[in-house]
Amino acid sequence: MRQKTIGVMGAMPEEVNGIIQLLTDSEEVRLGMRTYYTGQLNGVPIVVVFSRWGKVAAATTVSTLILHFNVSEIIFTGVAGAIDSGLNAGDIVIGKRLIQHDLDGRPLMKQFEIPLLGVQYLEAPPEALERAVKAVHTLLDGNHLFSAVGEKELRTFGIVKPKVVAGDIASGDQFFASSKAKEELLQKLPGVLCVEMEGAAVAQVCYEYGISFTVLRTVSDTADEQSHIDFPAFIEKISNKYSIEIVKNILQCL
Ligand code: ADE
């Protein structure tokens, strides 16, 4: 039987470049201003792409992965701003429920409700979630991440004992860079762990096409006044190596 192909997406070049370099039998396909890299990673057929930022960019990219490349599931790896005060840089959040925090069709429907789907949250398929939690635990429990990323590099970002948490991720076309915006979000959505700009869009497209998805986010910043400094630094020095290790570990659990 032909092996299934996995779509791997990241919203920043740094989040996917390291994975692209590890591909064997790699080929490039240019479509709609994106470059899709097909190939194999540890024997698993994958298509890797830098989606660009925001919900529209992510939605169009994931549609291409499904319709053109016929992927059977999506793994989205990237960074996020922490909303929950218990999260620190380097912690990994796995999306259990994905919500579009900027979707508001009131008074026609409830705040955050996705028109015609009639739901406010999209839930990750339980098997994909369970697999991702297991894969990230394996990564964090050993000393593997420290040797892959570099102990000194991790300590520069205050990363000592990163943890994994599964829960609510909020996505929207907004970079959070103030405590006020963060407070307002927490009042609207008290359970949210972190914010980013693509995950819920990916979840919606996958749901509509009936394919599995996993959204994994490494905390790069605290979504406040410091985030415009922490975010680019984390992207430059750390996220590349995190993404490689996360994706490799998940593929091992297939
Ligand atoms: N991704 C990483 N950090 C973020 C932030 N502060 N706001 C939105 N998306 C992010």
Question: What does this protein structure show overall?
Answer:
With 254 residues, this protein is an alpha/beta fold. The protein has a domain of 175 residues: Rossmann fold. 39% of the residues lie in helices and 29% in strands. The chain binds adenine. Adenine binds next to strand 5, strand 9, strand 10 and helix 8.
| Global Rg | 17 Å
Main β-sheet description: 5 strands, mixed, barrel
List SSEs in N-to-C order: EHEEEHEEEHHHEHEHEH
The total strand number stands at: 10
Regions with little confidence, pLDDT below 50 for 5+ residues: none
CATH architecture assignment name of the domain at 78-252 = 3-Layer(aba) Sandwich
- Helical element count? 8
- Mean pLDDT reading: 96
User: Strand order, biggest sheet?
Assistant: 5-9-8-6-10
Our estimate of the beta-strand percent is 25-35%
Tell me the quaternary state. single chain
CATH topology of the domain at 78-252: Rossmann fold
Shape designation: globular
Present as ligands are: adenine
User: First CA to last CA: what distance?
Assistant: 15 Å
CATH superfamily of the domain at 78-252: Nucleoside phosphorylase domain
Structural class: alpha/beta
Question: Mind sketching the topology for me?
Answer:
Layout: E1 6-10, H1 13-22, E2 24-31, E3 34-41, E4 44-50, H2 55-67, E5 73-82, E6 92-100, E7 121-123, H3 126-141, H4 144-149, H5 151-156, E8 164-171, H6 179-188, E9 192-196, H7 199-209, E10 212-221, H8 227-252
Parallel strand pairs: 1-4, 1-5, 5-10, 6-8, 8-9
Antiparallel strand pairs: 2-3, 3-4, 5-9, 6-7, 6-10
The protein binds adenine.
